[in-house]
Structure formats: C-alpha cells, structure tokens
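Memo to structure team: turn this sequence into structure tokens by end of day. - J.P.
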Amino acid sequence: MPDPPRAPPGSMMALLKALLLPPTVLVLLGLAGLALRRRAPRLGKVLAWAAFGALYMVSTPFFGSLALSALQPAYVDPRARGDAQAIVALGGGSFGPAPEYGADTVSHLTLVRARYAAHLQRLTGKPLLLSGGSPRYMTPEALQMRAVVAGEMNVPVRWIEDRSVDTFTNALESQRILAPQGIDTIYLVTHAWHLPRARLAFEHAGFKVLPAPTGYARFDLADLAPEDFLPRPSALLNSYYFFHEILGYVAYMLRVRL
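Reply from structure team:
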C-alpha cells in the first residue's frame, strides 16, 4: 500500500493536513463528544455518534471508491486531444531507504505514473520531463523516477525538475525549465483523481494541458458486493486521497486568486 502524500515532516502544513483529514479529524470529533458527555450529554452523544458514523462510512470500499472515482475525467487517448510538445510526469511519493535497492526508490503511486509516462513517450516520441523534489529529506523524486524510466525501462529523459515541494511548485518549476525551450503545450501525466488539481496548477503556470491520466480508481455499481460495505484500510486510504484532493484544490484556487 503506498504512503499517502505528505508535506515535509515537522512543518505546519503537515500538522494542519493531519488534523483536517480523516481519520484524525474524526477521532478528534469523537473525543470531543466523549469530553462533553457530562456537561452537554446530548451534544456529546451527537458528536460521538457522528464521528463513529463518518469513520465507518469513509472506511468502506463503497464510499472510498465512489468518492475517488468522482474526481476522475473520462478516459480519452491523450493523442486524440492534440499534439503536445513535451510530456511532464509528476512524482507521487517515495519509499526508502529501500535496502534491496541500496537507495531511496519510487512509491507505488510514482511507479504507476512513471510507467505510463514511459509508455506515452514510446508512443509519441515527445521529450520527457520528470518533476518531483525531495520528500521527507530523501533523494528527489525526479531522480528516483529517472532511475526507473531511463535505467530500467530504457526510455530517454530530457529534463529533471527536482526543486518542487508540491503540485503547485511542480508546475512553476516545470515552467521555468520548459518556457525557455518555447514549450507551452504538454501531456500531463498523473493519477486520474489527481488531475483536476494538477491541471489547475499547470494552467495557472501558463501551460496548455493535454491530460494524460493513469491509475484510475475503479467503481462500478454492477460489481457491488456486501463486503464493499465493510471497513477496510485500503478504502480509508482512498477516502484520505479524496479529501486530500478536495482540500488541495480549494487551497490552490485561493493561491491562484491571490
């Protein structure tokens, strides 16, 4: 299971995200309900049961898959959207230190994006930029991605962007590299559910974005089973990603307007 996206450890942003996103926010709500059970028993009971109910809901595959899939655009072959000048692939986290590799390496999320970026490069022949800075004081994600894309998949990488700290700065730092090359139209490779926030950031940076989503969250009402209404850790992680994207999109909208 991949690690959820994180801000640098010890930062105010990391703490704020932990407090605002499930499950922490729901645990705090439940504790507040228990603390109020004597002074305001009715309110305390409502808060405690609301926290319990919400925690159950976001832990079910039904909610996690439905919510995450709601963020995704319908799949369209990126080449059918137009002819981009370059491919930009975004990092999605790291794993390390990995003793079997003797170094930090890409997370599951980043590997999915790197694999599709390599596939798209083979199909189009467009130059490839890998974007991702240093998460949790590891080696930059872009360098980890290059080790996979160029070293293992034998796909050429033209540019490395290793200064960014989040999706918003992925866009700004990529623009700093590509603008002098006269490149303003890109295939943007990231997870389908991350694409709305990523597209907002890259269009704000001045790019024309041709979406190249991958790693779709799967949801089909026809496949629902009783166990999809039972809590699972993987479903809670999907819910975390969903609320992380919603919170991030709102924050980026404010940054764009300021």
